[in-house]
Each structure stands twice: as C-alpha cells, then as structure tokens.
Design goal:
Layout (H helix, E strand, L loop, with lengths): L1 E7 L6 E4 L4 H6 L1 H6 L3 H14 L4 H29 L3 E8 L2 H11 L1 H8 L1
Helix pairs in contact: 3-4, 5-6
C-alpha cells in the first residue's frame, strides 16, 4: 500500500501527492520540480546547482550526491508546499495500491469533490 496526500482547491481538481522517495526528483532535481510546478523551489535548487558546480572536484561530487538525495527525499514535500502557496488545502491522507485507487477512495470519502470537479 502506498500513502498519498490529497490536496483540494475551490478552482481545481484534487491533486494526489505520493508520500515516498522520488527517484526522478533525485536524478533530475530542479527540472523535476519545474515539471511539478514547484517554481520557487526549482529556481532555488537551480541556483544551488550552479553554485555547486564551482566547488572543487571531490567536494563537488560528495555535495552533489547529497543534494540529489535531498531532492529525492524532500522533493514531494516541496511540491506540497507549492500546492499550499497556490491555494490548495490538505484534505485527506489516502492509502491505496496506486494513484487511481487512491483517487477512487478519495471520491468515495468526499463525493462532493466529484461534483465540484465536473462543474
């Protein structure tokens, strides 16, 4: 079972964010954040990556690996933070085997979200 946080807004369809390490965030870093519309963390991460390139070689490698691990561990939290800044509210925590099942469980618990997203 995977755990998802459900974020709702008056103007948009509910968004599910998995609670797990993101390998894609660890590999692609700021570009993964851009793809998930986490603009502020993406720009800060990109600036930190540029500054990381100026470090001497052994330090750059170790710090780069730590930076990639931090992206993987905290990337989803940064997406949640960005959703909050855009007006989304944490509504539920849903456990399911995949995102479709989690969305179905969310709509079963909150049928009002189904009618709002259709309007």
């Amino acid at each position: 079972m995977k755990t998802f946080t459900a974020h709702v807004s008056d103007r948009a369809v509910p968004v599910l964010v998995p609670e797990a390490f993101s390998l894609a965030a660890a590999v692609f870093g700021p570009f993964w954040l851009l793809a998930h519309r986490a603009w502020i963390p993406a720009v800060l991460s990109l600036c930190a990556s540029v500054m990381l390139a100026t470090l001497p070689d052994p330090t750059q490698t170790i710090t780069g690996l730590a930076f990639a691990a931090a992206h993987g561990i905290f990337g989803r939290d940064l997406v949640r933070w960005s959703l909050e800044r855009r007006g989304f509210v944490l509504a539920h925590v849903v456990a399911a085997r995949d995102e479709d099942a989690a969305y179905a469980r969310l709509l079963a618990a909150r049928p009002d979200l189904a009618t709002e997203s259709l309007a």
